[in-house]
Amino acid sequence: GAGVSQSPSNKVTEKGKDVELRCDPISGHTALYWYRQSLGQGLEFLIYFQGNSAPDKSGLPSDRFSAERTGGSVSTLTIQRTQQEDSAVYLCASSFTRGGDTQYFGPGTRLTVL
Amino acid sequence: GENVEQHPSTLSVQEGDSAVIKCTYSDSASNYFPWYKQELGKRPQLIIDIRSNVGEKKDQRIAVTLNKTAKHFSLHITETQPEDSAVYFCAASGRALTFGSGTRLQVQP
Asked: Which of A51, A114, B35, B87 is 20 to 30 A away from residue A100, measured at CA?
């Protein structure tokens, strides 16, 4: 079946602009996660959604970052007033449920802030 | 929150040798420990995982061991091949996955 998809695959933006990154999880997966991976670094947890529960936003680095998940499926990560340090690959993952289920990753969106 | 430390950061072995990567975690409530392989420019792919009720798990040339008392777990790759070259991440799951910093494995032919 189809895996996790993300769009766009690459995004170049100017400092100060807002960007939206999209994630389509695997059908039927109730948990969705966003991570950030800077060049040559590990994966930094940002936020996760589980069903209709309030999202865990504890990993968001600043209030310029927000995310929503509509209808329990597609998620959008929004970064407002982008800064150069926001440049990274943003990875989305989904799992059947949370905490202990295998997470499947999307291909990521490479964000470059000039 | 959970903190995962991973060692070594880089590892170079000769083809056919074994490779071992070690991780420690801090949250005793974590109960799921996956390992991901990430090739250059690709997404992380799960290669093996272990749960807290199991001490060891094997899948062909890959094995993972878990010591809950000491809060550490390890990845063992035997008979390494050049295609094993990649960055390997360990992770521990409580509320969400916390990843180690990664190990860059280079298998020399």
From this structure: B87
All residues of chain B having their beta carbon less than 8 Å from the beta carbon of residue A103 are 34, 46, 97
Stated length of chain B: 109
Phi then psi for A85, rounded to 5 degrees? -70, -10
DSSP for A9-64 reads SEEEE-TT--EEEEEEPPTT--EEEEEEE-TT--EEEEEEEETTSPPB-TT--STT
Is A48 close to B96, i.e. CB distance below 8 A? yes
Query: Tens of pLDDT along A47-96?
Result: 999 888 889 999 999 999 999 998 879 999 999 999 999 999 999 999 98
Mean pLDDT to the nearest integer, B90-98: 84
Residue matched to tokens 């878990």: B66
Q: CB count, 10 Å around CB of B68?
A: 16
